[in-house]
Amino acid sequence: MIKLLEIREYLRRFYSKYELYIVPAGKFIIALLVFLLINGNLGYMEKIAKVPLMFVLALACSFLPVSFILFFAAALILLHTYALSMEVAAVVGIVFVLIFLLYLRMSPKEVLITMLTPVAFALHIPYILPITIGLVGSPASVFSVGSGIVIYYTLNAVTQMSNAIDSLDSEKTASKFRFIIDGIIQNKTMMVMIVAFAATIIVVYFVHRMNIDHAWTVATIVGALTNALIVLVGDLMFVTRASLLGVLGGTVLAIGVVYVLKFFMFNLDYARTERVQFEDDEYYYYVKAVPKITLQETNKTVKKVSAKAPVSDKPKSGGIKAEKTAENATEKTAERRVKKESSLAGAASAVKSNSSAAKKSAGTAAQKSTSASGSYDSLSANDALLGETRVVAEKSVDEGRVVKKAANPVMSASQSTSNAGAARSTSNSRIAGDLAGRRNQGQTRVRNDGYAGPNPSVGMTNGETIAERIRRERLKEAESIDADRLRRQNSD
Amino acid sequence: MISEARVKLMTRLASYEQGEGKENAEIGTYFRGDYIGLQVIKSVISATICYGIVIATMILYDSESFLSDIYKMDIVSYAKNMIIYYVIFVGGYSIITYILYSIRYRKARIKLKTYFNNLRRLQALYQKERKDRVR
Questions:
Q1: Which uninterrupted H or E stretch holds A275?
Q2: H helix intervals, A370-465
């Protein structure tokens, strides 16, 4: 079980890391599958029923929006049916136009469901669909699944009647037309399937949202039973010749597949890496937001750079180490373990296009760092910060903190930019810069109000006011003068 | 100087604008009545075209008997039935469209409200930064 959980976490990390490549690859696979199934079942036009052409089309679809897969699929179907018969192409075209005008116009996002429904039927695994869609989608998906079922059974009717259509006289257009339409409208199996799938989706949707234990499992089983019941009752009423074994076997298989899918894909937030760009008056921002993944691993791989920050004149090794660590951290942002359980949040990494002061200072900080002090344990996991700059800058923050403790403020501009209390960062840097080199017996105190003068607390006892201090010093002077006079008198 | 809070907020705003912000922005430019009215008009046109296609298909399906019976049948009552079916079909489709787009408009307004609140927060951050620089 633990191994399965680790595999699931690995899949989530893999997806969030390589999402840029996975989505086009997924589109390519779906498009290729759809086009090959169309060619396999309807390949009446030999010119276009070629696998290399399908590969090229699928490759094009991988870079285009998902709706283009349906567009190319519809075009292929119309060309194949036109090769069979013009009347068939007209009927299929009418079906597509009706579906587009009535339904897809209102829900263009559900094109994928409309496309996957015929594919599931063609692959003989149709019963997975309504349960999956009921768990993931909404009751409105009933219409997209219904559209997909209509498309499948239309093409199925064309495939089954292709021989009969060929044998009909080419002049009898009206009879061909009627023959095809009868094959579609009088298809009771299609009606039963539409009703069964619609009822299953609605039942699964409402059951999985109920406040009961194991709602998803209960919804899966109830949905599968509903589907099987309606299909079998429909078979009894309309004699659709559905195989009992096929229905039951398909239902059990559907439950198994949905359970596996549920484990790996549902209940998880597959947050995607997002890339955005914007600008303000000073900078252009190119931001890559990488989702953090909750990790519960036994092996901690926290990278501790060093425990303390000794003051030394050998910045290079520490700097290089910090830079390397920064680079590694930037590359493996999604995999970085801060603590045992870090909260899920979006971590943004920004790469500034213009070489800005922060970047330069980050490099300066890395070079100047006496040692790459601090560890990743101290990094905050809560805020979404800029990746590269964050890593290097936070290193500087840690260095700054440690250096402050050692009363040796080695300051850089990056510390001011990366400080979480950004409002005080500028003043801190000025003060720290002014105090650089001043060592008042460890009494250096960084103030937040911009005061950069000598420390007025030096030389004062606890609880003493300035007036009392002046009085004390005058008394001391007076005593010293009296002591000198007495000494002179005694010597005389 | 780069303000991390501001960059975080701007990142989230840009992410929203890239995604669902595009659709919601279009919705946000309309008043509720105008938006729903526009969608209902589009639905009426689509439903009319679909109804026309279905009637044409039915006539083609039964063209032989239709042409032979056209002189015998009561055209007025036939036309009346066609119009009643048309009104029922288009009316039903328009009602579904009205309900669907009312829900979409309400959801879009909520997201737009959040978006504008975030824009105000961004403006407040800018003003605060300007004040800090002046000091």
A1: strand A274-279
A2: 387-405, 413-418, 422-435
* Long-range contacts (CB closer than 8 Å, 24 or more residues apart) made by B64-71: B64/A174
Collect all residues of chain A within an 8 Å Cβ-Cβ radius of residue B5. 422
Chain A interface residues (partner B, CB cutoff 8 A): 94, 97-98, 101-102, 105-106, 140, 174, 177-178, 181, 274, 276-278, 280, 283, 285, 287, 289, 346, 348, 350, 356, 358, 383-386, 389, 416-418, 420, 422-423, 425-426
Give the type of residue at B77: S
Indicate if the alpha-carbon torsion angle A353, A357, A361, A364 is positive or negative.
positive
The answer to whether A184 and A154 have CB atoms below 8 angstroms apart is: yes
C-alpha to C-alpha distance for A91 and A82, rounded to whole angstroms: 10
Q: Give chain B's mean pLDDT.
A: 88
User: Are residues B2 and A386, on separate chains, in Cβ contact within 8 Å?
Assistant: yes
For residue A444, give every residue at least 6 positions away whose Cβ sits within 8 Å of its Cβ, in sequence order, or none. Answer: A407, A409, A435, A438, A455
Contact across the interface for B10 and A278, Cβ inside 8 Å: yes
Nearest chain B alpha carbon to A450? B135
Half-sphere exposure for A294 (CA within 13 Å, toward CB): 7
C-beta neighbour count of B50 within 10 angstroms: 20
In angstroms and rounded to an integer, the radius of gyration of the C-alpha atoms of chain B is 27
| Residue whose entry in the numeric block shows the structure tokens 């597509």 | A96
Place of tokens 């004062």: A460
DSSP H stretches of helix in A100-243? 111-122, 128-136, 141-167, 173-185, 188-208, 215-238
Write out chain B residues lying below 8 Å of A348, CB-based.
7-8, 11
Task: Specify whether the CB–CB gap between A144 and A114 falls below 8 A.
Answer: yes
Q: Are A48 and A10 in contact (CB under 8 A)?
A: no
A34's tokens: 């759809």
For tokens 């930064």, name the residue. B129
Compute the nearest-CA separation of A165 from chain B (Å): 16
Any idea where the domains of chain A sit in the sequence? 2-264, 274-413, 462-492
Decide if A418 and B4 are in contact by the 8 Å CB cutoff. Answer: yes
pLDDT one digit per residue (tens) for chain B, 135 residues: 678 888 888 888 888 888 888 878 888 888 999 999 999 999 999 999 999 999 998 888 887 777 777 777 778 888 899 999 999 999 999 999 999 899 989 989 999 999 999 999 999 988 888 888 887
Residues in chain A with CB shorter than 8 Å from the CB of B4 are: 383, 385-386, 418, 420, 422
Cα Rg for chain A, rounded, in angstroms? 37
Q: Report chain B residues whose CB lies below 8 A from the CB of A426.
A: 1, 132
Rounded to the nearest angstrom, the minimum Cα separation between B25 and chain A is 17
Which residues in chain A are closer than 8 Å to B13, comparing Cβ atoms?
278
Reading the block at residue A340, the tokens are 């045992």
Report angle CA A278, A280, A285 to the nearest 5 degrees: 40
Coil, helix or strand at residue A350:
strand
Instruction: List the single residue in A with minimal CA-CA distance to B49.
Output: A101
Across the A:B interface, residue pairs with CB atoms under 8 Å apart total 86
